[in-house]
Design brief:
The chain is α+β, with helices and mostly antiparallel strands. The chain contains one helix and five strands; from the N terminus they run ββαβββ. A hairpin with a 5-residue loop joins strand 4 and strand 5 (67-69). The protein is flat, with a radius of gyration of 13 Å.
Length: 70
């Protein structure tokens, strides 16, 4: 049985000034710390979403942009 040894946290939001998306990914952090780091860099971010992906040593980025862990 495989165990998830890595965690990728992807945080996305929109800028408050323009509808331009802001994106950051954090490796092997926890969700709360990643969110805090994101908000320090983008303090006026709105409509924020967080996706946490656990994976062993590889994952796939599909054509539509979704990620799948093995």
């Amino acid at each position: 049985m495989k165990t998830n040894t890595n965690t990728l946290i992807i945080v996305t939001a929109y800028s408050s000034i323009s509808p331009k998306p802001c994106r950051k990914a954090y490796l092997n952090s926890n969700e709360e710390l990643a969110t805090q780091r994101f908000l320090r860099e983008f303090p006026a971010a709105r409509d924020m979403s967080v996706e946490v992906i656990g994976f062993e040593d590889e994952f796939t980025i599909r054509a539509n942009g979704t990620l799948a862990a093995y």
